[in-house]
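Tutorial handout. Part one gives the primary structure; part two gives the three-dimensional structure as tokens.
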Amino acid sequence: FLHCNSMQMHKKMIYYLRKRDEMVEKGRKLGGMRRRLVENITILLRGKLHMKTPYSVCWNITSRCNDKCLFCYRERNSSELDFERQKRIIDRIARSGIYKVTFAGGEPLLVPRIRELILYAKEQGLKVSMTTNGILLEEEMLDFSMGTLDWLSFSLDGAATEVQQAMGRNQNHVERTKRLLDRIQERKDRT
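Part two.
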């Protein structure tokens, strides 16, 4: 995680990490402006240590998918973590000072308790994003996503159906994605 050349630097690192953790914990209990202040102090402490914490993590939470893209890099037979382990990973991401987590895959909507994980990540103070092919994004899940997620991304590899099919995506992928975007825009127009 971090490398120290001396015991003094090691002690200094531990001191600042503890301070950061205390402030992050206090920040979770606060709202609005105070919380942003704590987040800014955390960023300053990170800078004092010259820490290179990433801004965002893309978590391929599952290898399962309901599409068969030719270019897919996922490991098709990898096992999934149970719900409690998934929550512990979210805890670690949040404690490390990372700002945002993106649930991806495979297809994250195939994760049985994805809604609970999204809500849990939000409770931990993370910005949350999800990348989906949209096949399982029915009305209820779309409403949940729009009301909870900070970002919702769709897998789209080109604007033409022929391109999508050449890539191995299912038929009507472009049309489905356009319909989803239209439904999202309609919902936004109503609010």
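Part three, for discussion. The longest strand covers residues 127-132. DSSP finds seven helices and four strands in the chain.
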